[in-house]
Amino acid sequence: MKYSALKGIQDILPPDIYIWQKIESIAKEIFHKYGFKEIRLPIIESTDIFIRSIGETTDIVEKEMYTFADKAGRSITMRPEGTAPAVRCYVEHHLYTLPSPQKFFYSGPMFRYERPQKGRFRQFYQVGVEAFGVSHPSMDAEIIAMLKNLLEGIGLKELHFELNSIGCDKCRPAYRNALLIFFRDKLSDFCPDCQRRYKINPLRILDCKVERCIELRQRTPLVTDYLCSECREHFEELIFRLQTLKIPYTLNPNLVRGLDYYTRTAFEVTSEHLGAQKAVAAGGRYDKLVEEFGGPQTPAIGFAIGMERIATLLKEKWTGECPAPKVFIATLGKEAEVEGFRIAEDIRAAGFWVELNHGGASLKSQLRKADRIGAELAFIIGENELKDKKVQWKNLKKSEQGEVEIKDILSILT
């Protein structure tokens, strides 16, 4: 039987994996400069943490989570996003007792049962950051600046930063009431999901992807018109900080994000080269979530980057060469093969990538293989070379060749 990957799940192979490694390497370098430390989070969590944080009426909880009962009958969910597990970790390990801010980053697979399309998979990868303990808008600006530096550092500059404030517990009730009034007379024209959301959380209607619902949302009241004085002051200070750093942005009053835990700042980074799934990174504040998870009142902010979408954009600009061996050792005869095997280990111990022939093959075939895998040098060992304790070498990139004593073989590798 021939097997294949499940629908919506992909293998990541060379040379694409080198693009992923480049993104991850630059991300770690940038995060280090801003004081973010790596954490490793479990892939599975108690289902309750996602229902409580993301919201019962969100599409993720209602339709997309991979949830199952374990052998003890507990409801387990494969993480659909990283913030809720990060908050659970922060509270469980009492990290709030440490000096603020506590700043972390993580990476790995997330899982959502969605209709697969370009840039959207059922197992997808994210790099995420979370900063706990600072409410001042300077932290918001720092997070956005770090994201901009990261995206530019991996070679992506033609991106759009969209920004909004979605208020807090003080001003959200007035906005919620405005939405109830606005949607009331046309509610029967909305999809069944939105009709249910109207009763539970009308803000969720703003996140519906059904085309008819999007049309009915035209001229919806803007959340920024209902901000309380504290939220408005926070937002204005954030904008001032971004202008100070000369970070371009677009105010998008319709940006509400798809998760219930967000408060105040919300932002997305988008590209026009990805089709319908154009967001490559998104984030915002969630100042109440730590408290809801049993910790002390702790402001927090973070973002997540979609690795598949970033890699797709970067692949179009990729000019780097795929890694290749420094040396290929071609041998003729059993004794030469054994000596080549020993030499390969010496060269690897010196820090170089070495490939060699395993089993019998003609010299022509071995050199052809060395060229195909992109080796820089080919070392040739036969009976005469063994007798003279030398190897023949060829530089396959420069068409140069010569010989060197085996004891001096490392001298031509540097």
UniProtKB/TrEMBL annotation:
Annotated GO MF terms: ATP binding; histidine-tRNA ligase activity
Subcellular localization: Cytoplasm
One GO cellular component term noted in the UniProt record for this chain: cytoplasm
Domain Aminoacyl-transfer RNA synthetases class-II family profile: 1-323
Name the record gives this protein: Histidine--tRNA ligase
HAMAP family the record matches: His_tRNA_synth
Main EC class the enzyme belongs to: ligase
Record key words, sorted: Aminoacyl-tRNA synthetase, ATP-binding, Cytoplasm, Ligase, Nucleotide-binding, Protein biosynthesis
EC number: 6.1.1.21
Organism: Dissulfurispira thermophila
Catalytic activity: tRNA(His) + L-histidine + ATP = L-histidyl-tRNA(His) + AMP + diphosphate + H(+)
Cross-referenced Gene3D superfamilies: Anticodon-binding domain, Bira Bifunctional Protein, Domain 2
Lineage: Bacteria, Pseudomonadati, Nitrospirota, Thermodesulfovibrionia, Thermodesulfovibrionales
Subunit structure: Homodimer.
Family according to the record: Belongs to the class-II aminoacyl-tRNA synthetase family.
GO BP annotations, alphabetical order: histidyl-tRNA aminoacylation
Binding-site positions, L-histidine: E81, G82, T83, R112, Q126, E130, R257, Y261, Y262
